[in-house]
Each structure stands twice: as structure tokens, then as C-alpha cells.
Amino acid sequence: MASSLDDYESLASKVLPAGVRDFIAGGSGSETTLRRNRSALDAVTMAPRVLAGVSSPDPSTKLLGTPAAIPVAIAPMAYQQLVHPEGEIALARAAAMAGIPYVISTLSSQPMEQIAAEASTWFQLYWLRDRAMVESLIDRAGQAGCTALMVTVDVPVMGRRLRDVRNAFQLPSEVVAANLVGARTEAHVGVAGASAVATHTAAAFEPSLSWLDLEWIRQRTELPLVVKGILDPRDAYRATETGAEGIVVSNHGGRQLDGAPASIDALAAVVEAVDCEVLLDSGIRSGTDVLRALALGASGVLIGRPLLWALALDAAAEALELLSGELTQAMMLAGCATVAEIADLTTGRA
């Protein structure tokens, strides 16, 4: 059994093909932002409150109206069958066992309907060149029982991920974008010096996504609208003016603009700018990190890579149990009986 979420990466790296390992672990460019996510989280300090009499903290909350046993949702991640035969279905089951929401990716390797049958789900939408397919995905998400629509806005094109380029990474034939009916096949065709996944997204994604398109999405669905990929408080404010009920502060795990700020460094200004739920994504690796995010004003966090590593070992439920235990202990050490009390901690920078 792993002692920390970081343990799963080293363990999974021993069983995954090198190309898949790099596809999960890598960032864009020189991976400056990828590294910055971790160093910035490590720099956040929290002054614990003492003599608080906290013996049994309650880490439960609601995220976008969805009950959550801990203030965590599973981030949208593509092609999970790369690491497990059941892929997203297995991870959704682990989310249900942990009592937290699961975010279904547009590029999931299992159909959204099958994933949504396993857990409380939200649907993550990429803006596609095919407007009819976008409409279909939004409709299917509602019909499948997803309770929020999360629009990712920081991928007009995929960042240049050099590990994938050097590996000429391509998807195996059995792993497909299951939600995209009649999906293109570029992701399965390897070309030296190129990422086949990037070639596929360049063909499928519409880079000109604008505020007008977000307004169209808002009018197209009655689901709560969440905008993921915001780092500038001006964009956060405008998203709420457009009708967003939630913001995800995210640099896409360091996989888009290399040189972007760490998500945790952008969080406080976004929280200050808007009056809605704000979630943090990118770099969360422990219960202490969850505490850090909430102390800086987040309503909750999204967690991604550690659960893919754990999924590769068929240990996603174990990883979420470990995360929950870490958060509960961190709350005790900080003197916080409830999630709401975490926001009152005094924070600083090391």
C-alpha cells in the first residue's frame, strides 16, 4: 500500500509503457509551469489554530450543489483506458465509493452514459469545429444525468508537449474518443517528430472559441456552467457576467502555456474578483494541498494525475481513501472542525 499519493507515480511507472508514462507526466515546453505548480503549493504556509478541541473534523461539503465527502472532484482526463482496461468506468466507481464528483472528459475512452451510470458526474466540454457535435454532447450530458457542464477554455490548440513529440506518441487502436461519434483517426497514426494526439486535437478543436460562444453555451443548457482554465481575474469576472456559476483556476496541469503562473498563485485574485464557487486545479498531491487551496479561498479542488497513476495499479479507491485521511488529519492539525473554518486560517509564503 502506498504511503502518499506521490508513491503511485513511481509504482505505476514500472508497469506502464514509457510513452504512456510520459503522456501522463509531461507538460508543455520546458515544463516550467509544470514544476512551478508544485513549488508554489509547497511555498504556501498556514498558521494552525490551537486549543480548538477538534477531535473529529467533518470534511464534507457541496460542490456546485453536489454532495462531496471531501472538497475534491476528479479532474477531467482523456483516454483513461491507456492505463486500465475499464478506464473511466473504474475511476468513476472509485469516485462513487469515495463520495465525490467525477468529471467526464469530452475525450474519455468510454461513453459518457456508461461513466455517468457509476457516479455523480459533471461533463467537461471542449469546443469542437463540428457545432452539431457540440450540441449533441451538451444534450447527451443532460440526458445522462450529469449535474454540471464544465467548459475548458485554455486549449485553443494543444500546448507543445515535447515528451509526446519525441516519443511520436500515438493512441493504441483500441483506445478511442468514445464520445465523438464518427471520431477522426489522426490520434492513431504515428509520425516521427509529432504527437498524434496533438494532430487529432488540431483537427477536431475549434481554436476561435470566444465569449460569444460561451454565451451560446449558457443559453443552450440549463445545467450549472463552470469555466475551467482561468488564471486572470478579469476573465473570471467576465465569465460570471456571462452566466457561469463556477470557475476553475487552472493552467491545465502545466500542459498548455509554458510560463503561465502556478494555479495556486492565481487563486486569491480570482476569488476576490467573483461571487461564485471557485475550484483549484493543477498540482494537488495531498490532503495538505487541499487544505492550502481552501485556506486561500477555494471551494474545492480537482485532482488528476495521481489518480491515473493509482488507476494503473487498480488502486484508485485506495488513493482516494488515503487523500481523505490526509485531509482529515490536516484539519485536526490546523484546528478546523469544518470545511468552512479552513478559510479563516492565516496563510503566508515561505
From TrEMBL:
Gene3D superfamilies registered for this protein in UniProt: Aldolase class I
PROSITE patterns assigned: FMN_HYDROXY_ACID_DH_1, FMN_HYDROXY_ACID_DH_2
Cross-referenced InterPro entries: Aldolase_TIM, Alpha-hydoxy_acid_DH_FMN, FMN-dep_DH, FMN_HAD, FMN_hydac_DH_AS
SUPFAM superfamilies with a match to the protein in the record: FMN-linked oxidoreductases
Active site: H252 (proton acceptor)
The keyword Kinase is assigned to this record: no
Binding site for FMN: 76-78, 105, 124, 152, 228, 250, 281-285, 304-305
Keywords, ordered alphabetically: Flavoprotein, FMN, Oxidoreductase
Binding site for glyoxylate: Y126, R161, H252, R255
GO MF assignments: FMN binding; oxidoreductase activity, acting on CH-OH group of donors
Keyword Oxidoreductase: yes
Ranges for domain FMN hydroxy acid dehydrogenase: 1-350
Pfam families noted in UniProt: FMN_dh
CDD domains per UniProt: alpha_hydroxyacid_oxid_FMN
Cofactors, names only: FMN
Similarity annotation: Belongs to the FMN-dependent alpha-hydroxy acid dehydrogenase family.
PANTHER family in alphabetical order: 2-HYDROXYACID OXIDASE 1 (PTHR10578:SF107), S -2-HYDROXY-ACID OXIDASE-RELATED (PTHR10578)
Name the record gives this protein: Alpha-hydroxy-acid oxidizing protein
Record organism: Kribbella qitaiheensis
Taxonomic lineage: Bacteria, Bacillati, Actinomycetota, Actinomycetes, Propionibacteriales
